[in-house]
Amino acid sequence: MSWEGYLTRLKGTDGSGTQPIAEAAIWGQNPLSVWATTDGLKDIKAEELQLLSKDRHALQQGMTIGGHRCVLLRDDLDTEDIFTINLKTRADAQGNRYCISIGKSKQAFIIVKGALSAQGGQVPNMMYGVLKYLRESGY
Predict the structure, then answer these.
(1) Reduced to 3 DSSP states, what percent helix, strand and coil does the chain have, rounded to the nearest 5?
(2) Following CA atoms 132, 135, 137, 139 in sequence, which dihedral angle do they give, to the nearest 10 degrees?
(3) Which of 7, 13, 71, 99 shows the smallest number of beta carbons within 10 Å?
(4) CATH T-level topology, domain 3-137
(5) Cα separation, 108 vs 32, whole angstroms
(6) Widest CA span of the chain, in angstroms?
(7) pTM exceeding 0.70
(8) For the segment 31-81, what is each residue's pLDDT rounded down to a tens digit?
(9) Which tens digit of pLDDT belongs to each residue from 91-119?
(10) DSSP 90
(11) CA 49 – CA 65 distance, rounded (Å)
């Protein structure tokens, strides 16, 4: 499957028939480079993802992903069998806030932005299936 195919899978419907993920990107870790992205996450910068490789205590003050200012909800990026960090965007001009989840496989980061209608756990749960597959495949 091409990397674009993984984006399609990430943006698919979940078990309840809803589409919790609106945007997705896959970045290589070393070197930090875009492997595939949807338009809504095309503005992610390598400097933003570099923060995930360092001491992440600074993330408690927030971070920016692709122009979206975010607050940290939960950092399990180095926790075995989880490997995710969950963020929430600050309110946009319309007052909307979105879930952003980042997963770390062995060679890549998966970044997803939830749909406005997505409930809290739907976004990381949908991403985790792809993340687990990539980790088991050596990626």
Answers:
(1) 25, 35, 40
(2) 130
(3) 13
(4) Beta-Lactamase (3.30.450)
(5) 9
(6) 41
(7) yes
(8) 999 999 999 999 999 999 998 877 788 788 889 999 999 999 999 999 999
(9) 999 999 999 999 999 999 999 999 999 98
(10) P
(11) 8
